[in-house]
Amino acid sequence: AGVKGLIMIKDIINEYYQKGYSLIPLKNNSKFPAIRWKKYRRRRASLEEILNWFINFKELKFMNFKEPNIGLVTGEKLVSIDVDYPSLLPELFKLLPEAEKTTRVKTKRGFQFYFSNNGYKIRSTKNLFGLGIELHAKGRQVVAPPSKINGFIYHFEIPLSQIKPLPEKIIKYLEGTLPGIETGIKEGGPAPGVEVEYKQRRALSLPRYNGQDRYCIKQIWDRELKAGERDSSLFILYNLLLQNKNKADYAKKITILKNNS
After folding, report:
1. Among 78, 145, 183, 230, which has the minimal tally of Cβ within 10 Å of its Cβ?
2. What is the 8-class DSSP label of residue 179?
3. Which part of the chain is the DNA primase/polymerase bifunctional N-terminal domain (predicted)?
4. Together in a domain, 109 and 62
């Protein structure tokens, strides 16, 4: 069984490597890297390095002699959408039909959707399309099959052979909502197809993180307020801005802008 396991892991590593992906070892039963991996955000480890990590794992004493999980570095070759709540899938598929057809990994809580990236420098975000879902790109890594965490084995529901190119809609969305986004496409000015509301948000940007969780602020800011919830939502927004150590006049300005949107 041990020999078969080594052969299997070598085959898996080789498949990832031949597709141009950058691999790192993750701690056993964990999502966290087992090595200092900063340099591997800039360069891909050689196949020899990778095999030493995964095949000769008993030499890695800091992992207590346990087999590591597999991490794929995201960025110039691979971009992944991480959805922890399956209830968000219908909205994601509506906004991004390509996600329904591309490589899909089943995680314990939800799914990962892989897209191939042709060298564009795409930054990561925790709120893609305002849905509160994560886009893993530059400077991040994802847990890859057949990693195992708390008894659950990550596995492909749609194989790597069916991976789709990074949708242009993601690039345009990031260009429109994240100032200074590095895509290698846009030279300046708003991206084609980006709605006016995005330009308004950039003109008066949300405050930086000041010690409080900004997710609730962004959730209110990004969605359309319906009749019956507007007053309470604006009240919550104003108070969250104050809790996030913004001055009262700035919090008021943000709240008025949202009310007029």
Report:
1. 230
2. T
3. 13-170
4. no
Please indicate, yes or no, whether residues 63 and 87 belong to a single structural domain of this protein: no
Q: Is the pLDDT of residue 183 over 50?
A: no
Burial of 150 per CB tally in 10 Å (0-12, 13-18, 19+): exposed
Q: Which residue has the tokens 């000769």?
A: 56
Q: Judge whether residue 181 has pLDDT over 90.
A: no
Q: How high does pLDDT run on average in the chain? A: 80
Q: 220-225, long-range: CB within 8 Å, 24+ apart, which pairs?
A: 220/258, 221/258, 222/127, 222/130, 223/130, 225/258
**Total number of domains constituting the chain:** 3
- Whether 78 and 158 share a structural domain: yes
> Which letter does DSSP use for residue 113 in this model?
E
Q: Is the Cβ–Cβ distance between 27 and 63 less than 8 Å?
A: yes
Amino acid occupying residue 7: I
In a domain, 192, yes or no: no
Secondary structure of residue 261 in the 3-state scheme: coil
Residue 196: inside a domain, yes or no? no
| Kind of pairing between the strands at 164-165 and 111-116 | parallel
What lies within 8 Å, CB to CB, of 96 at 6+ separation is 81, 129, 167, 169, 170
Average pLDDT score over residue span 184-192: 38
pLDDT score of 63 more than 70: no
The pLDDT value given to residue 254: 80
